[in-house]
Amino acid sequence: MRLKKALIVMLSIMIVVVMAACSKSNDKSNSSPSSSAPASSSSSTEPSASESASPSDTGLDHSKTLKLTVFSTTANYAGPQIGWFAKAIKDKFNIELDIVASNLTGGDTKIAAMMASGDMGDIVIWGDDKNNYPNAIKGGLLLDLTKDGLLDTYGKDIVGKYPKAIEKAKIAFGSGNAVYGIGNNVASNPSGPSEGKDMTWGPDLRWDLYQQVGAPEINTPSDYLPVLKKMQELEPKNANGKKTYAFSLWSDWDGNYKMTLAKQFANMYGYDEIVDTALYTKADEEKYYDFLSDESWYMKSLKLYFDANQMGLLDPDSLTQKFDDVVAKYKDGRLLFSWFPWLGAANYNTEENKAAGKGFQTVPFNEEVMYSTGFNVYGGNGIISIGAKAKDPKRVMEFINWMYTPEGAMLSAGSGTAVPNGPKGLTWDIGADGKPMITDFGIKAFADQQNTKIPEEFGGGDFYYGQNQMNFSFVVPAEVNPETNEPYDHNLWETSLKLNPSKLESSWREKYGVLTAKEYFVKNNKIAVAPQGFTGKEPLVMDKTLEQKNKLIGTVIQQYSWKMVYAKNEDQYNKIKQEMLDKVKGLGYDEVIAFSIKKAEELYEARKSVK
Amino acid sequence: MALPTTPIENPKSFGASKRWTLPNKYKLFLMALPFLVTTFIFYYLPISGWIYAFYDFTPGIPLSDTPYVGLKWFKSIAQNQTQMEEVLRVLKNTVAMSTLGIITSVFPVAFAILLSEIKSSWFRKIVQTLTTIPNFISWILVYALAFTLFSVDNGVVNTILIKLGFIDEGINFLATNSNIWLTMIAWYWWKSLGWGAILYLAAITGIDQELYEAAEVDGANRFRKIWHITVPGIIPTFFVLLVLSIGNFINNGVDQYFAFQNAMNKDSIEVLDLYVYNIAFANNFPFATAVSMLKSVVSVMLLFMANTLSKVVRGESII
User: Does residue A123 belong to any structural domain of this protein?
Assistant: First the structure.
């Protein structure tokens, strides 16, 4: 009886509560549109008032910690941003970043899943502006930065200094007036190679061993093999008694149509792929070749690795290991060849090794014509966007804007492609003569990034993981800082170039008669600079059916590329190659080529815009 | 309002009247309701996603803005020779893996019987725990374990084999196509043998002990008892699971094959689920949906066939 009464009471209470909740939420939904309008207008007038007082201060309230989810398709680190970069932005903006990296969680799969979910996080970083980025715009997943004057009020420095980047965003992706994202590696001056001290590619060899085998002349990439073999014979095992190899590949970066490590020699011949198509095109000429043709350096690279494998120069775990395993092998001194300065040299050239004359240095081949990305006033194809459901777009915009200012660039220009400068007063400072210089701590930190502990007041942790892990380069590091009249990149500072060279560096400089790898390529006219233009039209995209074919073909090429490299003998190699060619043809390769050629023509047109 | 109005004869003696109770059938229904709702949400609601098969759907863009394409994606499964061959290859792998799975589904039965015959209870418990634990490890971690064990360069197995002088150079166990089906089924049972035996152990516990005693009186030895009492005792359980696994014939799951796939073994490891995953999440949802729709239809057909077979052969059916 009592139970029943209690039940009735409870039931009635529940009904009341539910009704109340309903009516409350009704109120809320009724009032929110009306109340939000004045709120936004008041907040946009407020900062403009304070702007007149101090232009750099946007007048936003930073008292509340803003936790941002950064979905990055380029990041190689997932989790909360830590270390010195985290500390810098926490102090400046009271912002914390949590990074979601599609590279570590299924690649394209993760991107598709995020897009399908309808919420891409607060900041979205796109590795390129093909397919996914325009689709996200169409799907309303990204915020229009021109809305409510967001860009004009909180993105002043971008608008003021890089107007072309905004122009491209509007015309190419925003139907003329909306801005859904801003390009990476933006520059304000349009000529010459945009790289820093090193180029993007080498190739680099273990300099000490190369000297010991007599530094033979190298004309073509295949000439490296016998040299590397001799080097391997000289040092068959590293200090810990583990086997050395010339090449160690990894497959977890595969995607976009290719086995990632089979395109680098094409780049060293001045060609680069057009993303998601089947063509490689010359940097400074209207020339291209088919990805799978015999003249293609993709196919020639597969053959090169196949030969390397036959000679015992290729790490047998290449197919099953991950990128981090390879980095560890470079650190342990188990590898003798590096495609990129940021891979071999960055991991093996410690102060200790360099002093002993050991380390990776660029050893170009005579036919080499280095592909170089020119300065790009329109911004690169990497894009940073704000998600449509971002928590506090004003503060997010303010933060992104800051990354494009000299202050932000001096902290972390070149994230992902170059070693950033780090916090002022720790790794670098402005000298008495007003010129930037690296501190002693900085020298140590840049050389041995993972083992250099950062003091607690600068955020703690080590230098490497403390970097901006979004892996997005806002301003091109070679851009000149108006405040110091020197580039942002510390490697290019006058004080750095004059710094005591190690035994390794002096040996290399002596041989080539130049200070840096970039100087070598420029001086010897072995460089092909690709002008970074823009057609002024919306980019061509594949239709759905062709896209499916293209993807299928891409997976087939990836799979067969590896099989060819690890083929047992020449006959098997040729058999697998033929099998691949037949298969992709059956899947519609010709149609993909036809589209690719149109894409190449589009590129040539774009280049004319900056000539 | 849906509640039945129980007539209240005398409003004055409201408290003293017969206590009103919810009829039993509603009580039972209410008890089952949460599960019905869950089933509906997780098994029936997703069927509405089949609609994507008829559109040129791209993630991020609402369906209302995408063009309707009819049966285009169904037709595209077999639109040309090469693609047909791809699908056949994938089907071959699926059938092979499932057949192997069904053939080897006697393993947990045998394991459960052997386990129940162990006299020492602490030892039995340890064995059971150790064999059940792997079931809770994800396939990605299993692969990490496999890499440390079997990598050429630093793998434990290769190092041992080389140190003992059996081989001169490391064998690449992971990047190979030979015996890949057997390897996969071996990994599968390593992970799920203990777990699979649990149901049979329960069935064995349910067998009447008097049967064993009677058999002992009749002079049956241990093997006789197993063969004539234990085995017939768990056969019904085995058949139920068998019929269900036939219904799941073309659902091999993704995880295991996803973790272990690489360029060398992809040809033989790509089962239907993985193929759909690889293609769809490489940006083609409509195509993947079309394939999985067909899959569901085939699954239902297989299940009913197996059930009918069971009815004819054993005179019992499970549905």
Answer: yes
